[in-house]
Design a protein that fits this description.
It is a single chain. With 156 residues, the chain is mainly alpha-helical. The chain has two domains: 110 residues, Orthogonal Bundle (Arc Repressor Mutant, subunit A), CATH 1.10.10.10; 38 residues, no CATH class. Helices cover 49% and strands 5% of the residues. It contains seven helices and two strands. It has a two-stranded antiparallel sheet with strand order 1-2. Strand 1 and strand 2 form a beta hairpin. Helix 1 packs across helix 2. The longest helix is centred in the N-terminal third of the chain and has 16 residues. The relative contact order is 0.13. The model has no long low-confidence stretch (mean pLDDT 83).
């Protein structure tokens, strides 16, 4: 499964905005420079974020963007949805009557990948911009080898 640059860059830009705005508008060229994202690409992303109600813009000198609501109320899943980043792991086009296999059926692993997509959405819905800004996501997981070893040690 691949997360496109669209979703990653939108989250990076929103975290940057949350960190640097302090309620004042931030110019996109500042975010573009700090995050090393093309300004034209960032403008496209912010058009979606604005339509999604996540940012508001201010024109004129000292203008730019600011969060439309507090960082504590802005979920990462909302950002992904606003920039039209799909949060699913299947290859299926849900609107297609042909299903995964192209023959009116699902592939044998469809339910596995569909549930993975659902779990990703649940996770991203539980993480806010404030969580990322305040580094509260760190330590929530650890490499699989450590988890398995920790479980084995705890069981002994």
């Amino acid at each position: 499964m691949n997360l496109s640059t669209k979703g990653r860059y939108a989250v990076m830009a929103m975290v940057d905005l949350a960190r640097s705005s302090q309620g004042k508008p931030v110019a996109l060229n500042e975010i573009a420079q700090r995050q090393e994202i093309s300004l034209s690409y960032l403008e496209q992303l912010f058009a979606g974020l604005r339509r999604g109600g996540l940012v508001v813009s201010a024109r004129g000198p000292g203008g730019g963007y600011r969060l439309a609501r507090p960082a504590e109320e802005t979920r990462i899943a909302d950002i992904m949805i606003a920039v039209e980043e799909p949060l699913r792991a299947t290859r299926c086009d849900l609107a297609s009557p042909k299903g995964c296999t192209g023959q009116n059926g699902r592939c044998v692993t469809h339910d596995l990948w569909e549930e993975l997509g659902r779990q990703i959405h649940i996770f991203l819905s539980g993480v806010t911009l404030a969580d990322v800004v305040n580094k509260r996501v760190l330590g929530m997981s650890r490499p699989i080898e450590q988890s398995v070893h920790h479980q084995q040690t705890a069981a002994e």
